[in-house]
Write a structure and sequence with these properties.
mainly alpha
């Protein structure tokens, strides 16, 4: 079996680029949200494309609905009570940061909650805990009524 088959994306990136990342606790809430935004979007794009080949603009529209701040805020609000204390603290750290940009189509509160979700995703990603990140995303999507294809590995 190929040695890299069971590595997560971050492990592959670390190996390919010779990276040694600092301790995840050293990152600011906005830095965690920066990488978490990409990790969250990749999870959503993977979910969308798993539904089958379709027109790219349709996939983009579906993805956009789930990556915008109001949807992310609704998701994290719905699952916040199910998070561990440490996860809640990371989410609050992201939520309580002072962003340097303003949300285009979201309230300031939704934008801050979305930043909290992204910070949590970034923290989990940098901890190599994509499994937990996916559990939280799945629970959040379910909470906002997004229908996910059933799989054998339901969490």
């Amino acid at each position: 079996m190929d040695e890299g088959v069971n590595k997560c994306f971050l492990e592959e990136a670390e190996a390919a680029f010779g990276l040694t990342l600092p301790d995840v606790r050293s990152y600011s809430g906005l830095s965690l949200a920066f990488i978490g935004d990409g990790a969250y979007e990749l999870a959503i794009r993977t979910l969308i494309i798993s539904k089958g080949n379709t027109q790219v603009h349709k996939m983009h529209r579906q993805c956009s609905e789930l990556v915008k701040a109001p949807a992310q805020a609704a998701m994290i609000r719905a699952v916040f009570g199910q998070l561990t204390e440490e996860e809640q603290a990371v989410c609050r750290r992201g939520h309580n940061t002072k962003p340097h940009t303003k949300a285009k189509n979201a309230s300031a509160d939704d934008y801050l909650w979305a930043t909290g979700l992204e910070a949590l995703c970034g923290w989990l990603y940098l901890k190599h805990d994509q499994h937990r990140m996916m559990e939280i995303i799945r629970a959040g999507l379910s909470a906002i009524g997004y229908e996910i294809q059933s799989t054998e590995n339901k969490v």
